Amino acid sequence: MNFQPDAEIDHEGPVTPYRQLAGILRARIERGDWLPNRPIASESQLVQQYGLARTTVRRAIAVLVEDGLVFTVPQRGTYVAPNADTQPGTGS
């Protein structure tokens, strides 16, 4: 399922919020909002921006880590993977 980078979370929709957020973040990376080896927005920023619980944001990031799109550095944050711009969007 593909999401638009500027989409909002639909809490009543058929797709779980963490999957929606993962799709939105994927679209934002593909659009170039965050460059390879640079950090994405912090968990706190994503919680505020999308009105989600921290655990929901963490689940969405875990999906992107599993897909190889981002990586986390303890005490530093989540970064776009170096080869993220060459990966096709699979739409989580």
Provide structural commentary:
The protein is mainly α and 92 residues long. Helix content is 39%, strand content 9%. It has helices at 17-31, 43-50, 54-66, and strands at residues 70-73, 77-80. Strands 1-2 form a two-stranded antiparallel sheet. A hairpin with a 3-residue loop joins β1 (70-73) and β2 (77-80). α1 crosses α3. The chain is globular, with a radius of gyration of 12 Å. The N and C termini lie close together (6 Å).
Quick overview of this protein structure:
This protein has 92 residues and is mainly alpha-helical. It has 3 helices and 2 strands. 27% of the residues are buried.
Topology of helices and strands:
Blueprint: H1 17-31, H2 43-50, H3 54-66, E1 70-73, E2 77-80
Antiparallel strand pairs: 1-2
Helix pairs in contact: 1-3
